[in-house]
Design goal:
Elements: E1 3-11, H1 16-31, E2 39-44, E3 51-53, E4 65-71, H2 76-83, E5 88-93, H3 100-103, H4 107-124
Parallel strand pairs: 1-2, 1-4, 2-3, 4-5
């Protein structure tokens, strides 16, 4: 493996998912010298210069590259991006707050939470040969046969 890149929907200063991705990147670089490890995000806040725009994600030979996708809130552009990927994907599941909790207060945000769950479920059916492994806490997120 020549590269292990991480992809986030959004990166911002002080955000838990962003901080975790930065820690993983540091651990990869320390433990596996010579393996490229970058972080890409669809949305980037101020102060996260180590995180690159998703539009700069590498193309080309996917056989020597793996992606860690940090699943969180939904983003329509991320659906398209992930659908076109052929490299191995490791799914890092971050709890997605139930949309119903926000529906009465912020329907648009609730819609993004629903989309995040839909994105997660769409990845569970990715061909196993691509290297996807699901370790979500709920079986319905991992197997289409257990979806109810």
């Amino acid at each position: 493996m020549r590269a292990v890149h991480q992809v986030l929907v959004a990166a911002s200063l002080g955000d838990a998912i962003t901080n975790e991705a930065l820690g993983i990147r540091q651990a990869i670089k320390r433990r596996f010298p010579g393996v490229e490890s970058e972080i890409y995000a669809y949305h980037r806040g101020l102060g996260v210069e180590p995180v690159r725009p998703l539009s700069q994600y590498p193309t080309g030979n996917t056989a020597e590259r793996a992606m860690v996708f940090h699943s969180s809130i939904g983003e329509p552009g991320m659906v398209e991006f992930l659908a076109g990927r052929r490299e191995r994907i490791v799914l890092r599941y971050h709890n997605i707050t139930p949309a119903a909790w926000f529906q009465a207060y912020d329907p648009a945000f609730a819609d993004l939470l629903r989309l995040g769950r839909e994105q997660l479920i769409s990845l569970r059916d990715r061909p196993r040969r691509a290297g996807y492994r699901c370790r979500a806490p709920r079986a319905s997120l991992c197997s289409s046969s257990s979806a109810g």
